[in-house]
TrEMBL record:
PANTHER family: HISTIDINE--TRNA LIGASE, MITOCHONDRIAL, HISTIDYL-TRNA SYNTHETASE. It comes from Rousettus aegyptiacus. This is histidine--tRNA ligase. GO terms for cellular component: cytosol; mitochondrion. Pfam families: HGTP_anticodon, tRNA-synt_His. It is an enzyme of class 6 (ligase). Belongs to the class-II aminoacyl-tRNA synthetase family.
Length: 512
């Protein structure tokens, strides 16, 4: 042991750390080395070298975020919080309660809920004897929560991250990790009243965010399944064909038809019959037209869906939003758990020429009715009818972020209302007492973390950060019992009695 004392202090500390972490492995190496005729000092140095080498190699690591994820800087967070505030305040206005669930669920809770998309679920390694997966959306965890707590009614909102193992397209706001904002109504109610409210909420949010013109496509899974049946699609292929139809907003009918025939084994004449329907869209008049269709009118399931859509349009007219809704037979929403009305909101780009069709800029909200999902978790199979919507925060954020980059408007990254400054040295204590007074009054305030900052530096900071007010304290102010209150934009200053300062600041802030 005396030879170990020859080690450098840092090396000795490292060796002790290795002894604490893996004494067995260290002893084995020491025994093996000693048998080769090496001294304890040589053994120690060899162990340290082997342990330090991996750390030296880490210097070549590429520092980046994982594929399909991103960091959000302060300016981006301002935009994101504005979006979330608009969304959540709308949810609350409609009477929703907040809810949160774990970021991961038991794997068996998520399997067989998403159809073909189930392959996009992130599975986690077995830790503690449970097979877990990151949540794919916020809807299935909500259904699990309802079943687990035996709840029959609930109106809830949930904001949280979800994960999907798909190929990301960052420019279109498609990530592997992204935020969802969900609103759902669970419970047995008269038909189409909650569904109409969900569509009204989407309109309120998109209008509130001022994203431009938009359209909400509406369909019904019963109409869709009825259409598949009368066109000759085998029932075993309903979900697979539905998944193909769901791609019509991204690829052409020709490509969708090819996928259904060549990859999913659908007969060409059946695909052509489907094509006659899925290229139709319109308002309530199209619903009436489908009632008269010789094939569709023979299918009981489709007629039930059309009846609900007709009632839905009545309520949407009363809400004053029927003009924003389009009955679109191509809307499929590939997720397996939808059972009734489905919808998807898309932004429209105004065409350059009057005769041109508006351009679809992509889906920014979607949802629908899922009456059978809760029953999949209930041991007795008791169902709780549900309908809900999800706001596409990342897509909306990408649009607003692009606008932010092209705009000359400066974005404030803090909400600081008042800056505490001094023109003189040795006034740190007075500044600290003053800022504590402002904080205690609930005023958002800052100061520079320097003992003797220059006044010009302090005022430049106020202007650069967009802070509207500055309070200035110096020897003269201290003697007279006043504080100078400066309007940063106009650079006008007035002397305020110290005891009246908080009230004066609050008054100015309420008027701004």
């Amino acid at each position: 042991m005396p030879q170990l004392g020859l080690l450098h202090g840092r090396a000795w500390a490292t060796l002790l750390g290795q002894l604490r972490q893996s004494p067995g492995a260290l002893c084995l190496r020491a025994v093996h080395s000693h048998s080769q005729g090496q001294s304890p000092l040589q053994v120690s140095e060899a162990v340290l070298t082997s342990q330090l080498k991996p750390h030296q190699e880490k210097s070549n690591i590429i520092i980046k975020t994982p594929k399909g994820t991103r960091d959000l800087g302060p300016q981006q967070m301002v935009v994101r919080e504005k979006i979330l505030d608009t969304v959540v305040s709308c949810f609350k206005r409609h009477g929703a309660k907040g809810l949160d669930t774990p970021a991961f669920e038991l794997k068996e809770m998520l399997t067989e809920k998403y159809g073909e998309d189930s392959g996009l679920i992130y599975d986690l390694k077995d830790q503690g004897g449970e097979l877990l997966s990151l949540r794919y959306d916020l809807t299935v965890p909500f259904a699990r929560y309802l079943a687990m707590n035996k709840l029959k009614k609930m109106k809830r909102y949930h904001v949280g991250k979800v994960w999907r193992r798909e190929s990301p397209t960052i420019a279109q706001g498609r990530y592997r990790e992204f935020c969802q904002c969900d609103f759902d109504i669970a419970g047995q109610f008269d038909p189409m009243i909650p569904d109409a409210e969900c569509l009204k909420i989407i309109c309120e949010i998109l209008n509130g965010l001022q994203l431009g013109d938009f359209l909400i496509k509406v369909n019904d899974r019963r109409v869709l399944d009825g259409m598949f049946a009368v066109c000759g699609v085998p029932e075993s292929k309903f979900r697979a064909i539905c998944s193909s139809i769901d791609k019509l907003d991204k690829i052409s009918w020709k490509d969708v038809r090819h996928e259904m025939v060549a990859k999913k084994g659908l007969a060409p004449e059946v695909a052509d019959r489907i094509g006659d329907y899925v290229q139709c869209h319109g308002g309530v008049s199209l619903v009436e037209e489908m009632f008269q269709d010789p094939r569709i009118s023979q299918n009981k399931q489709a007629l039930e869906g059309l009846g609900d859509l007709k009632l839905l349009f009545e309520y949407l007219t009363l809400f004053g939003i029927a003009g924003k809704i389009s009955f679109d037979l191509s809307l499929a929403r590939g997720l397996d758990y939808y059972t009734g009305v489905i919808y998807e909101a898309v932004l429209l780009q105004t065409p350059a020429q009057p005769e041109e069709e508006p351009l679809n800029l992509g889906s920014v909200a979607a949802g629908g009715r899922y009456d059978g999902l809760v029953g999949m978790f209930d041991p007795n199979g008791h169902n709780v009818p549900c309908v809900g919507l999800s706001i596409g925060v990342e897509r909306i954020f990408s649009i607003m972020e692009h606008r932010m980059k092209t705009s000359s408007e400066k974005i404030r990254t803090t909400e600081t209302q008042v800056f505490v400054a001094t023109p003189q040295k040795n006034f740190l204590q007075e500044r600290l007492k003053l800022i504590a007074e402002l904080w205690d009054a609930g005023i958002k305030a800052e100061l520079l973390y320097k003992n003797n900052p220059k006044l010009l530096t302090q005022l430049h900071y106020c202007e650069n950060m967009g802070i509207p007010l500055a309070v200035i304290i110096g020897e003269q102010e201290l003697k007279e019992g006043v504080i100078k209150l400066r309007s940063v934009p106009s650079r006008e200053e007035v002397a305020i009695k110290r005891e009246n300062l908080v009230a004066e600041i609050q008054k100015r802030l309420s008027e701004s």
